[in-house]
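Minutes, project huddle
Topic: does the predicted pose make sense with nicotinamide-adenine-dinucleotide bound?
PN asked that the exact inputs be recorded in the minutes so nobody has to dig through chat later. Recorded below.
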Amino acid sequence: MSKILVTGGAGFLGSHLCDALLAQGHEVTCLDSFYTGSLSNIAHLQSETRFKCIEADVQNKIDGDFDEIYNLACPASPVHYQKDPIYTFKTSVLGAMNVLDLAVRTGARVFQASTSEVYGDPVVHPQPESYWGNVNPIGIRSCYDEGKRAAETLFFDYQRMFGVDIKVVRIFNTYGPRMDSKDGRVVSNFIIQALRDEDITIYGDGTQTRSFCFYSDLIDGFIKLMNSGNDIKGPVNIGNPGEFTMLELAKKIVSITESKSQIRLLPLPEDDPKQRKPDTTIATEKLGWKPNVNLDSGLRKTISYFSQQVKFKG
Ligand code: NAD
Ligand code: UDP
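Predicted holo structure (tokens), as shared on screen:
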């Protein structure tokens, strides 16, 4: 049994990670400011004696003694990370420094939830980890993209300077139950709109692509990377290589929900990446990881979750 800290543990991915680590018998501490996360994501864990939740901000020094630290604390949806871009940037950079300083003091292995956004609007397709990206440093997405890039820099500098045992994952769009229904991400937006027979809001002409990974595949990749040998530091792409346009995604969701929704085209937000698809060769060859849940099956499970939410909230 290991003592594990999960920052951002009350969020969409963090709460599923806490569940998976507890199921493996570990002692888990969730640290969260509840900026975008919610108590309801971890309510089912309150009576679990191996689980503890601390309300705190990763921008401040973190105390404790852990064997492993997973750093997930950061708003992830464009709507939330653009609301207060300076908070987002500080969370990424100061949060990385604080978990790394804790790792220096305690010898913990430390994992960073980085993102495919480090590739920006990519001119290399699909994106391998060796691609340095095409990121606007001064645009509305930069607080997130550059914050996450700076966090990766810090991870590798702490590794080189202090020998910190690091693991860095680059996450591609992930979806599933416990996504925040109001955070504006495409999968939750389209599902809720379809369930309510409202217009499906496609930004731009809908030809931009994304690769969608179901949360359980991603969490499996997280744990495989964390438990991998010392030689594997990352960055490692984890994402489902299936690639879909937003128009295709909308049509799939309308069809599965048998919705009467119509497509409505709205302006494309600034710097919205045109294409995204992970090259997962490293994850497959070095971690033995591959996704098991295809988009249709993951969408059905997510739709079933949101149908309950829509029913209760009206
Ligand atoms: P989320 O918004 O549901 O979870 C983020 C959690 O971090 C929330 O519980 C929030 O309250 C907490 N948090 C934010 N700022 C904090 C701070 N300063 N101090 C303490 N806690 C703070 O988002 P998610 O989708 O679960 O994303 C989790 C991580 O994975 C993020 O780091 C995100 O950048 C990364 N990621 C997610 C995706 C995806 O598709 N879901 C893709 C790429 C990267
Ligand atoms: N998008 C859309 N309609 C929505 C929400 C998002 O067409 O209601 C588009 C968005 O412009 C982007 C893609 O869907 O091209 C994915 O958006 P999301 O915010 O989920 O993730 P990210 O842009 O960070 O990959």
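Observations noted during the meeting:
- The mean pLDDT is 97.
- The chain has nine helices and 13 strands.
No decisions taken; revisit at the next huddle.
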